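note to self: the first set is below, dont mix up w the second
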Amino acid sequence: MKILLTGARGMVGRNILERAATGTFEMLAPARAELDLCDRDAVRRYLGIHRPDTVIHAAGRVGGIQANMREPVSFLVDNLDMGRNIVIAAREAGVAQLLNLGSSCMYPRGHDGALTEDMVLSGALEPTNEGYAIAKIATAKLCEYVTRENPALQYKTLIPCNLYGRHDSFDPVRSHLIPAILHKMHVALTRGEKSVEIWGDGNARREFMYAGDLADAIIRSLEDFSAIPPTMNVGLGFDYTINEYYQAAAEVVGYPGNFHHDLGRPVGMARKLVDVRLQTEWGWEPRHTLREGMARTYAYYLESISA
């Protein structure tokens, strides 16, 4: 099977490549210099030349709350262009299978229970990442429409919960919660700081899955594509408070200090937990515990700062 993987230099893409190396796939993993997904004509030419059997669309402009709030235009337009260009070019090239990666940001804000796949477009989005979410929703709906018009083209969307892991970004300006926490904790440890700041009261809840587990689910889906539904959540099915993530990170890093809360900082949604019933029916679940995943991620962080 010849597979085109977009976003091969990102965290998810690199984890997919590491997992795919154990299989029998021919992976096309072009860098941006070779394939600019925001260039419609370039994407059409690439797919017309290489004719992959399957496309995994893992590319995207990503970042934490600060980046999304600071650059909403780029998060909307770049992700919308990438999604539209790859899906339409795949359809024109007759690519039979496309696996699109969505985001739990696609779900409405203010829902305290588990988020089911049919809740997309059922309510207002979280303002701190609205542009990114709109782009992800549009791409997922486009996949749905392509299959509706031509059932021979199976274009499906996996909606992962929040992710972290090897190859993550630890830049405080762009990083998500767990890499940001690990970086803060490491800096505080090396500087001998007695306290680490937590945004908000720390009671907001988040579901974070190790990216290597998502890669495992993606590779399995390629081997069992017809069995997965058109849209399916991929996650843990349970969550932790922000305070609990900080405590787990302190244990992994070995930080002995305390925490203090800045109640004036933005915290985003109070809770964002995906429903994993369809995933369970498919027969898959993630393997890594929070501390196992954090330990692997921190080991990668230490490697990256010493390189």
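second set (the one i keep forgetting abt)
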Amino acid sequence: MRPQSLDELLAALEQWPHALLLGGGTDLGLRASKDRETFPAVIALEAVRELQAITTPPGALELGGAVTYSQALPHIDRHFPFFGALVRRIGSRQIRNLGTIAGNLATASPIGDTIPCLIALDASVKLVSATGERVMPVESFITGYRKTALREGEVIAAIRIPLLQEGVEFACYKLSKRFDQDISTVIAAFRLDCRGGRVNELRAAYGGMAPRAMRAANVEAALRGRPWNAASLAEIDAALARDFTPISDHRGGAVYRLRAASNLIRRLQLETTLDLPMRVEAL
């Protein structure tokens, strides 16, 4: 089915409550082509007008559920340049022309590239069904390994990302064996609010460190109120080890993941305190 409007989509979901929702198909397509799965019903979302909207309500960027990476990229670039740089590393241009951020969120992969960014930015997701709508933080929407809070008959209508307040910085980093077109080993995303050289608030979210993308609560607590300098990071490895017990697989060992994840905080501290703004990749 290929509904053209949100009303048509919700009607299709009432008729086929167990149908698979097809965004760009960059994940779902592999289940058909590689794993030879068959699906009882599929509802394509790319023609639903309401899900294609990109708006800027006061203090936020809102991306409809069918907005592709390529469509979202100019807007993400404008407000979150680091996030935009990460999006450019997701697949090829053809993949980005099809894949959607809402689809990346709905698959709930622990190494989904955009999910740690959305969590660190305190984004929320609007879910719509025939009975109404509800809004929840992305952090709560992901409930486990490839599990979400999406109910039967619901669809992701939009993702709302709060814009950064003055003085607040955002950075994200992706570690993979290849720089481009590769699955992540570790993803880290940070929203940092420093006042007078001290950490007022740090939201630190990671992918590739647990069965789902999640925040590093002990790291955040360890740095809250501390001077934002290298000395304050002396115990950050231990704090991170209390937050995560990563697995070892062909992309990286557990020890590597922990060390890399803590070093990305050190990298953030270095890059945000240099006299001239600079990414380490430029050195």
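remember for set 2: The longest strand covers residues 186-195.
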